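Teaching assistant here, posting this on the class forum so everyone can see the example we discussed in section. The complex has two components, and the goal was to see what a joint structure prediction looks like when all of them are supplied at once.
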Amino acid sequence: MAVALEPQTRRPNRAPSTPRAAKSATARRPFRRWFSQTGWRHLVGVAVVIFAAFPLVYVFSASLNPGGTLITANTLFGNLSLSSYVDLFNRPQQPFAAWYVNTLFIGFSASAGSVLLGALAAYAFSRMRFTGRRFGLITILLVQMFPQLLAMVAIFLLMLSIGEIFPAIGLNSQIGLILVYLGGALGVNTYLMYGFFNTIPTSIDEAARIDGAGHARIFFTIILPLVSPILAVVALLSLVATLSEFVIASVLLRDPERQTLAVGLYQFISQETSQNWSIFAAGAVLAAIIPVALFLALQRYIVSGLVAGSVK
Amino acid sequence: MSAPTTTRPDERTVHGRRARRTAESASIGWKLLLLKITVLGLLNAVSVYAAMVLFFNERWIIGTLVVVSGAILTWIYLQRGALPAKYLAPGVVFLLIFQVFVILYSGYVAFTNYGTGHNSTKDHAIHAIMLQTQDRVPDSPTYPLTVVESSDELGFAVTTEDGEILIGSADAPLEAVEGAVVEDGRVVQVPDHQVLSFADLVERQQELTTLAVPLSDDPNAGALRTQDGQRAYVYTSRFVYDESSDTMTNTQTGQTYTDGGEGAFVTEAGEELMPGWRVNVGLENFVRAITEESIRGPLLYVTTWTFAFAFLSVASTFILGLFLAIVFNDPRMKSRKYYRLVMILPYAFPGFLSALVWAGMMNQEFGFINNVLFGGAAIPWLSDPWLAKLSILIVNLWLGFPYMFLVCTGALQSIPEELTEAAQMDGARPFQAFRQIKFPLLLVSIAPLLISSFAFNFNNFNLVYMLTGGGPRDIEAGINVGSTDILISMVYKVAFVGSQSDYGLASAFSILIFFIVGTISVIAFRRTRALEELN
């Protein structure tokens, strides 16, 4: 079901495997033939790399430009200084450090919660047969077609009235925001996990049961470790999604101290237009570090997770 | 696919059942049991507490729901059977509250006039009108005043002429209080309240001068207000509310306002007294969306653009992604790994940041694209209606092609190479072989992803809102909407951006989107037969 995406390292093929052999192979081909077979591919590659990387290079350069505005950011790597990064943490009106901590707290809690809830449900759907099972699966599939943000007005009003009675989980509460995010836990996640759970043979469960293990022990000590790759993928995907979630966070979190990076950084630039471009750029670089690093480290699993969803 | 595991043949005999039960209970282990007891205990404690608070606040229905669901959850986890329910319950609880309920609630709000000027009950509206139109009563007594604070709420503590001590806040009318300490006719200490110092008073002056503490439950009785935090005077409203006839009368002009049934007091000439209150307006929001020209026009072009945007985004990212997947799928090509690493960066970079960075680069006067790439040209990337649309598509292409590249590469590699070779043996040229053999196979596996990508872009709020803010704004429209707004960003702006919020209309739009998305999903599912794979 899952497809390995790195054939160049796995699949033996006609391409020479050592650099030296490759070199001699290309050397043997006349230039024109080399160009028509692989050379033009490098041209495409270079063009795409420029297109893909340019905005990131630009924002990195802008972040190193001391006290820069949009116009000064146009000279790439003209001035180099870390002062924007320092300034970023000294702005009482825009508490960047608090945004960062909030984002991580909300992101990790929501993502861990989603994985747990999703895994429990996927286990039930994959291993048990009960009335309403098919109906339940279809319902989940259909409900996730309606993204939560469509109901943002209702979520806002619901949290407003919860807040009147229980301020700890109502409007302007991060716990409340996490609870709202958990409402979406059973959507696409359960579906991805359900498919993966199905690939684990049920004979393992049965063997464990014969040995005297109860359902809870089977789930926590046998199944969960076996499905950990999909748990990691779902955790990462929902973490990344939560980190850049704007709509519900902006509607629910009111105090600057409690907001997330997405809400804070957006307001930061929409209010001050292009005046503090380099400080924004520094914030953007810092905000992107964790998701990009996680993504690059786990890319192979993510990719196979994505592909598993499509290729049957 | 898997054999039924909950009912095993040996369950039919008493013996087998007992053996199974023993094995089960022996294996749970004391740690899990302890965890179960703790969690259930906490759950019950929280729900009892929540229900008590709710009943205290007279929310009978919700309180009952909390009690019932607490009981159901406890029952599920305390009995032996109902295994699936044990695993499904936690997620389903959240799903029911924050997905299903809010969708239904959106439906309810869509039938009300909820929004700026209509966001509370009639009683609140009456009080608010009277508070906003207050004048000082001539020759009214002066009350020595102390400003107090209790749980973030400011209140007044005053002494009357006959020595009584009263305390109250904006929501709680004045009431006699016991145990206060008075010095020189002024309160200096009140139980459960904090007395504000002079410095606090100066700092919170704004808040203080707008605070009005009602004298009694009767809105006509007037309220105490202060200018300096030292003395309070009685203020009464220009309006008098007559409960028996349900009318408001302006005592200065003699104008009478009656409840028009649409959530506000109106004169016979149709002049409304604001704020109003929330009422059920039936289909009015939907009717407005369809018949009112200044809303219908924008709604139509926003819908059209939403479809065009979602379709063009999927098409452009898919074409580029597929093209790149084919280009890089040649094993003879070296260093593909590095190209790929750079190419997926846009996918890894948080989407909202990308849109903001591109917004900076596309800035008409100072942006990199105009200043450097086009040598100082002033191309209105984000402020011309058509160029703004193009910009959104370009940025979305940047954001989306890596994903398509990844899934196309995966799908291409799962198609056996022999197929192409066989076709070429039969005399097909490479492109022909691709188009007629690989491409259809690829589409089969990619189609569900294209559909979900369409659904994602249909509601791609972050990109639109961060890049153009939906702008350039359409000045003629009756709502806050611009030429790059998609449906979801329009809902957001109608409900939360600017000084006017119209939750009712925004929810009506949400419901319309529900139906559009629902129809598309059903059609898509039918075509891809995704549901038939469930077993």
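For the discussion questions: Chain B touches chain A through 115 residues (CB under 8 Å). Chain B has three domains: 24-110, 122-273, 290-533. Think about how each of these relates to the inputs above.
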